[in-house]
## 1
Amino acid sequence: MPSLRFGILGAGNIAGHHARAIQNTPNAELVAVASRTETTGRAFAAQHQTTWLADADALLARSDVDAVAICTPHDLHLPLAVAAARAGKHVLIEKPMALTVAECDAQIAACAHAGVTLGVVFQMRFDALSQQLKTWIDTGKLGRLLWTSATALWHRTDAYYRSGAWRGTLAHEGGGVLINQAIHTLDLLLWLTGMPTRVTAQTRTLNHAIEVEDGAMAILEYADNRLGSFQATVAAYPGYPERLEIIGTRGSAIYHRGQGRLEWHLADPREDGEAHAPISSGAANPMDIDIAGHIAQYQDFVAAVRAQRAPLIDGREGRKSVEIVEAIYRSARAHAPITLPFA
Ligand SMILES: NC(=O)c1ccc[n+]([C@@H]2O[C@H](COP(=O)([O-])OP(=O)(O)OC[C@H]3O[C@@H](n4cnc5c(N)ncnc54)[C@H](O)[C@@H]3O)[C@@H](O)[C@H]2O)c1
């Protein structure tokens, strides 16, 4: 079977994970990387034995590229995904899928129209403990859900925000902790427990010289009478492991995701347990990201293209966290609850 030939757009922090994941995925091949900065691009290409191109259009024009990985600042996710789809390339986009739900819908429409596969990277869904908890919730082990919440008290330094001109800006990052760091934890909560129907939130810029939020707090209400919450900041020195709390009628599971620990306590019949898995968390260090999740994501993406099926995290799945992030921003601006889905 011929390999799926990838080009990577962007040669920054996360692009190296993509290069290594492609090289560790059977039937996948890295053909080229596009990055505007020549020194970075050439160094990346040398390190990963690939070809550097100065711009995305040149990469999209190549007939030996079947698929692209979008690893650029957030505001470029929409135009690059649409351009890639028009060029007939399959598209794998780093989180967040885009800045708004409207942009996600435009990406989904462009890929559907071109008949190319669209995937979004949320590698934490592939963690063994995430998968175990998902199965338990879906099969009713915890009973009917009553309360579902998540907290990510992370830390980012001022130097981190100075490390890229796009960071901390509304125009290029599209928001702060919510749309960048905490979107991983939010995506897990939504995937595991479903979408809320009402969001009431506040955001703040607490302790960084940035124009976007570094703290957010949201009350989540669900159609099944369930309550929940989501709290996230990058102002919590030194950065604490993120956790999710899932409370059901039969008992509860606390997923200390950032520690690789899942504990559960069921009432009748009584069952108490704890499971562990090696894990990394970006709580304190943005690059403390294990490669295993990206490899799992690439394996699924390549298999999906081959089988002409949707990947496990397709555009519809990638859009979910963007919808809640947008609802939180809208609620904070309006000082009012936001009803979902958007009209
Ligand atoms: N999944 C994860 O755990 C994870 C971790 C870090 C970052 N990310 C995501 O990856 C994306 C990139 O983040 P980063 O930290 O690597 O950013 P970065 O600033 O380190 O790198 C961005 C790269 O994009 C390049 N670029 C900018 N405009 C371009 C263009 N028009 N064409 C081609 N390249 C262009 C820059 O030159 C740079 O090489 C973001 O969406 C971010 O949220 C995901």
## 2
Amino acid sequence: MLTSAAVKAQARRLGFDLCGVAPATGMPELGRIHDWVARGYHGEMRYLERSADVRADVTRFLPGARSVVMTATNYFAGADPTPGPVPSVARYARGEDYHLVLQERLDALLAWMQEATDRPFDAALFVDKHWVQERVVAAYAGLGWIGKHSLLINPDLGSWVLLAGIATTLPLTPDVLVADQCGACTLCIDACPTGAIVGEREVDARRCISYLTIEKDGVLDSREKAAVAGHLFGCDVCQEVCPWNLAPAVTTDAAWQPRAGREAPDAAELWQRPDDRLHDFIEGSPLTHASMAQVRRNLALAIGVSGDASAREVLNRPGRGVKNAAFSADAPAVRDAVAWAAKR
Ligand code: B12
Ligand code: SF4
Ligand code: SF4
């Protein structure tokens, strides 16, 4: 018989730092997504609206599901110099694309589970984009508690962990919830530059810099431009200030080591690269989830607040790229960002 302990041990062998099991039913907090969407907090992420019913019930994601094998993987590859790099690339995006890395590891875990038992079962894996609310399930799998910034915090690893899992019809022994250890602290709420943490464990994505840099395409309004300026992709502010991340374990996993200069990007140098060479900077990383125009828009905004006159000089000379291709520098959002940056 396949046991929870055996699955967890195999998950660790495959490179997951933590593994726990949640029951597939009896997670009332999953239903809160309806309220969150009704308040419009998802902004232009319409896919969350469309998939809310499935996200609220794991047995709609996998009919007959009885358990969820949930994993967490540490991606903290080392401290930044003080002050941190500007523009910043969020830590989770500096190495390889976690969607691909974790999906491959989950494939291997599922193949092992199929080998390890004669009992037929159904299973469906998920990494981020699939229709499962990973933080809630991870909390029920005993991997940590949901901090006031709404991210999962593990008592040993902090919050620099990525989540992924496998829903299955197998009846595995579940873990139990970990006690919330935020206490009276409000550091993340106080530090958020845009007031996006509108309540404890509740983020209005429309105000979150992560959303504005990655998800929001097109021209940003002036408040949004000011918030984004200095962030190239994502935002780590609420996690940097968290006491549970004071001395995080440093991963030696090759997948999460920074590539292509993403730990300290040079905005002016990147701006002058033609699109095909700018693509080298984002290739194989989560940055490919943003469009080239979004990356260039965020670069222009960063140059605008850099205080470096020679960097601002190059705003008029964006790298263009191969002949006849649509240049990202000509996108309306990029032109608008250049005009904003030039006035700073
Ligand atoms: C949409 C999304 C976003 C949006 C919205 C964020 C948000 N807070 O909801 C945006 C683009 C802003 C975003 C940003 C980031 N994201 Co994101 N995102 C997602 C995604 C795809 C869905 C999240 C979702 O459904 N949100 C809607 C709310 C309603 O659902 P929820 O997250 O499940 O939250 C509920 C719980 O907190 C629960 N709850 C509240 N109190 C309690 C108490 C208990 C006891 C329990 C059990 C539950 C519970 O109710 C909440 C609210 O209703 C998930 C992947 C996934 N499939 O789950 C990744 C995910 C949450 N993101 C992740 C990351 C890393 C980030 C960033 C750090 C990236 C960055 N550096 O820029 C930022 C962090 C911003 C922040 N403070 O949240 C990781 C988080 C890992 C972790 N340690 O928790 C995830 C899990 C991706 C992954 N596979 O690892 N993200
Ligand atoms: S990721 Fe940045 S903008 Fe979003 S909630 Fe955290 S601190 Fe605020
Ligand atoms: S900063 Fe404080 S309140 Fe926010 S998640 Fe960390 S411990 Fe909790």
## 3
Amino acid sequence: MGFYRDQLLPRFIDKACGTESVGRWRTRCLEGISGVVVEPGFGSGTNLPYYPPEVSKVYAIDPAVLGQQLAAERLAASPIDVEFVGLDGQRIPLDDNSCDAGVLTFTLCTIADPMAALSELRRVIKPGGALHFCEHGLAPDERLQAWQFRIDPVQKRLFDGCHVSRNHPELLTNAGFEIAWSDADFADGPKPWSYFHIGKAVQPA
Ligand SMILES: C[S@@+](CC[C@H](N)C(=O)[O-])C[C@H]1O[C@@H](n2cnc3c(N)ncnc32)[C@H](O)[C@@H]1O
């Protein structure tokens, strides 16, 4: 898996997630975000062009270090100070209450222990701060869900742990976040992979 996971997969994700059509979801997801942001699953910086000017700093966390190279153009074009601070969203090397907001885009689907990552995000995001999310996940109708559960074992092997059947708003609520707003709809692409959960969850004050 080494060459595939470390070299090919980050390049594939950069292309697949860096499209204009996904960009429209990013714009909506990142609306209203400001200040110091923590972003587990920073990848190749696909969110950078969509951050509003009110964001001053992004703490980037991702195990795929090739992402930092693939992000070079986006980093150079962005006024935001990006600091790479770690490799694992399940163990965030930041102080308690050190961030105004968090971002998860197409990442909670992949993190092995999503509750551990969410508990870390609750620790580092200040009370009243927000976690902006956009993830592909569990579809509403049972026939499609059945396909998603069938696809998951193969998906996990091919895409380094990625699931298509996670219920992201439910995970966020179970972790203690309060959903300020959320929406879900089909994006472009094959249905099992393209039911997107988008929204903003708030760290209770
Ligand atoms: C599908 S990509 C999404 C990248 C980016 N967030 C985007 O929206 O295009 C999933 C990312 O999660 C990263 N990832 C996987 N496990 C992780 C973990 N435990 N902590 C932080 N990031 C992780 C992967 O390396 C990959 O860059």
## 4
Amino acid sequence: MKLVVAVDKNWGIGNKGELLARVRADLRNFQSLTKGNVVILGSKTLATFPNGKVLKDRTNLVLSRNTDYNPEGAIMVRSLDELFCELKKYDDDSVYVIGGANVYDQLLPYCDTAYVTKFDKGFECDAFFENLDESNAWELVSIGEEQKTNPETDTEPDMSFYFCEYKRIDK
Ligand SMILES: NC(=O)c1ccc[n+]([C@@H]2O[C@H](COP(=O)([O-])OP(=O)(O)OC[C@H]3O[C@@H](n4cnc5c(N)ncnc54)[C@H](OP(=O)(O)O)[C@@H]3O)[C@@H](O)[C@H]2O)c1
């Protein structure tokens, strides 16, 4: 399986339950990777989506231990065992882990590709992703051209960012 994440300069990914920045080009990149595919997310990340609704045009596998929590359109999984049982139904290449911090931590060992948007800025963060640049298990295989935020559509008016791809090397 693969993962998609947006990190700041210190591999921070969120603060107070929210994303660090809303950047339209990054959202488009996220959509093009995940549309038509399977996404895995934690209940706290789902809560950050507009009206707490699942992503359309995707199969949403939502992790929560709370059996009373059954958001419309989600396939609920209550443990990693249940998740891996459910995942047998799908092609591994079509499965994307989309957060948050807690879910990335647990599923990173099962991922072979990481699509990482790197924001060229340090934000105040309370949620972090493992620093893949310092990991022996991962290597950076591609880094896209410098992108710039658009002040008309993005929460950060003047920030560079890069679309990067990492591959697992300790298979
Ligand atoms: N930058 C990015 O790309 C990105 C992407 C996504 C999220 N984020 C950020 O990440 C932060 C949220 O991360 P988070 O770590 O607080 O929450 P999270 O990973 O989204 O969700 C954690 C929740 O998932 C459920 N869960 C986790 N492991 C489970 C397991 N093995 N079995 C059953 N349920 C399990 C639990 O839900 P219950 O409590 O319901 O049992 C747990 O409280 C936010 O700031 C968000 O904006 C950033």
